[in-house]
Amino acid sequence: MSANNQSDNTTQHQQATLELSIDLMRRDSVTPHDKGAQDVLVERLSPLGFDSEFMYFGDKQATGLNAEVKNLWLRRGTKEPVICFAGHTDVVPTGNPDNWKVPPFEPTVKDGYLWGRGAADMKTGIAAFTVAAESFVKKHPDHNGSIAMLITSDEEGPSINGTVKVIEALEARNEKITYCLVGEPSSTDTLGDIIKNGRRGSLGGILTVTGKQGHVAYPHLAVNPIHALLPALTEFESAVWDEGNDHFPATTMQISNINGGTGANNVIPESVEVVFNFRFSTETTEEELRAKTHEILDKYFDNSAATYDIQWKLSGNPFLTAEGKLVDACKIAVKEVTDIDTQLSTSGGTSDGRFIAPTGAQVVELGVRNATIHQVDEKVEVDDLGKLAQIYERMLEELLLD
């Protein structure tokens, strides 16, 4: 592509992506609500031959963790390979709106940035891959394979009625995704500098240690669960769970909350609760982490008057997409649009890619900069919007054109 054509294409993509981003960001779609954002995508893409299917999971009457979630599966074409863009229309709460420079759901272009909740995470990503798909289909209506989109409004919440349920439905009817690009904000310093080609696993636990309540002046008549727990906590902090590998850092365990006590300074509490989380590599498994945790605790509690119990929750296993067609296509696209040699990474938290990768799909994450995600005054560079849409379109060309 000539420099002039690339510049014109970026300008057109930028305006279209900016306008769609603003439309989506105006909707106060705090998780698990969608507020009509997915309907906007259907209205735009249906005339181009995308079949749309809304999938609802959860309890329509519930307002808590099991509240009903709206999901969208869009697909154009019936053949393989299936290139799927994945994303979420829900956003995290804004916090106190008075602390924002602009109202969080009144997207504003200012100082070269688009400000507002969802600017980085990740309504601009959805806008960019929608614009990319529109442009690609208009240029190549008889393209190979299929283009799909998997959109949920349950990524920022408990993630139990969103992508995981859509994938189960697709698998049940043997509808497979070949390549998946998750439009999460992967970039660090500049657009396209980082592609996430994997993620660590996440295993959480709630540890409850139970003793016997009593007066602090008579400790021999009580069992202090906090005292009983301290040696195990010390060993957790120093434990080596694995050494990591070429793709993943070593597994880590972090304690995020400790709750115990009655509020009085003269009462030994009956129990203490510890919330912890493992971020683990492919060098270890969920079962091994559980076993080692119990091994450490049993060392200190087998002959103790205090007892313990753990409630475990696996949020996702680690996954890795090795270099291949999808990674290569993304690298080529980023290089041509930004002149950057992108780097592969598995750092950061989890994403919905953890539900898609186990089906056998190649999965990567590629999106705008993540410097302000979940923060007050979330924002993204306006100049990056057209470039991102162009990267996505170039990736489609690499994967779906002969």
Number of helices: 9
Largest beta sheet: strand ordering: 1-2-6-3-7-18
Q: Give the overall pLDDT as a whole number.
A: 95
> What is the rounded Rg?
24 Å
Structural class comes to: alpha+beta
Strand content: 15-25%
State the end-to-end distance.
17 Å
Which runs of at least 5 residues are low in confidence (pLDDT < 50)?
none
Shape summary = elongated
**Element string (H = helix, E = strand):** HHEEEEEHEHEEEEEHEEEHEEHEHEEH
Biggest sheet: strands, sense, closure?
6 strands, mixed
What assembly state would you assign to the polypeptide chains in this entry? Answer: single chain
The count of strands amounts to: 19
Describe what this molecule looks like in 3D.
It is built from nine helices and 19 strands. A hairpin with a 2-residue loop joins strand 4 and strand 5 (113-115). It is 31% helix and 25% strand. The model has no long low-confidence stretch (mean pLDDT 95). It has helices at residues 3-25, 37-45, 123-139, 163-172, 225-238, 286-301, 325-338, 353-356, 383-400; strands at 51-57, 69-76, 82-88, 108-110, 113-115, 146-152, 179-182, 194-196, 198-199, 201-210, 214-215, 252-260, 267-268, 271-280, 307-316, 319-320, 343-345, 362-365, 379-381. It is α+β, with helices and mostly antiparallel strands and 402 residues long.
Brief overview:
This protein is α+β, with helices and mostly antiparallel strands and 402 residues long.
What key phrases describe this protein's structure?
four-stranded antiparallel beta sheet; 9 helices; 31% helix; alpha+beta; single chain; 402 residues
